[in-house]
Amino acid sequence: MRCDLTLKMDLLGEKEAQELFLHEVRHDDDPSRVHLKQKQKIQQIAVQVANQCAKMPLAIIFVARSMAGIKDLREWRNRLNELKGDIAGIHDDEAKILEQLKFGFMCLEDSIVQLCFLAAASLLADDRQVYKTEIIQNWKERGLVGFDRQCEFADDKGHVILNQLERMCLLQVAPDQQIVTMNKWIWKMAKKVNC
After folding, report:
1. Rounded Cα distance, 129 and 182, in Å
2. Cβ count near 165 (within 10 Å)
3. How many CA atoms are closer than 13 Å to the CA of 170, on its beta-carbon side?
4. What is the pLDDT along the chain (195 residues), one digit of tens a residue?
5. Hey, what domains does the chain have and what are their CATH numbers?
6. Has keyword Zinc (predicted)?
7. How far apart are CA 156 and CA 48, in angstroms?
């Protein structure tokens, strides 16, 4: 959650979950001229999406950040319907959380970022800690980064993707900014996506 100290968080109450979602999606910060009525409808749908996230802070943040910047009411409704469809009929809490995280992953629009995340997850199994340089080297060996640019700029692209994955809470970077880890829930979701 963009802090220097890692804290274990319990499930949130409904109002707290909604506030966190709206904060992370930054709905109120939008300076565009989206019609006020449409903005209110989007906010109502955003609250419904937040309510689908099992009140788990990680799921709320990840799904919210995957939807940040969406201004089309139809896209919001579609995403809500997709999320509801993905978790409908799932009664096991763990399975529901993994499905919600998978939904956020599927909302990532760049397939290269998705593939880089899955490749990083394979390196970070069993609570491993890996240097950023090792992850980027793995991506280069797999042809995920560097195939379209000179060698000296391939590392820059790798760092851009690492930063994006960190902002989305898919990776955790140690305070020294060199070592990467992955939350156990995120790793389980990656494993489920790879199956």
Report:
1. 8
2. 23
3. 29
4. 444 555 556 778 888 888 888 888 875 555 555 567 777 888 888 888 888 876 788 888 888 888 888 888 888 888 888 888 888 888 888 888 888 888 888 888 889 999 999 999 999 998 899 999 999 999 999 999 987 767 778 888 999 999 999 988 899 988 888 899 999 999 999 999 987
5. 14-106 (no CATH), 111-194 (1.10.10.10)
6. no
7. 38
Distance CA 102, CA 96 (A): 10
Of residues 121, 113, 86, the one with CA closest to residue 167:
113
pTM for the structure as a whole: 0.79
Q: How far is Cα of residue 165 from the mean position of the Cα atoms in its chain?
A: 7
105 by DSSP, 3-state: which?
Answer: helix
Gap between the Cα atoms of 51 and 81, Å rounded: 13
DSSP summary character for residue 27: -
SS3 content of the chain, % helix, strand, coil (to 5): 65, 5, 35
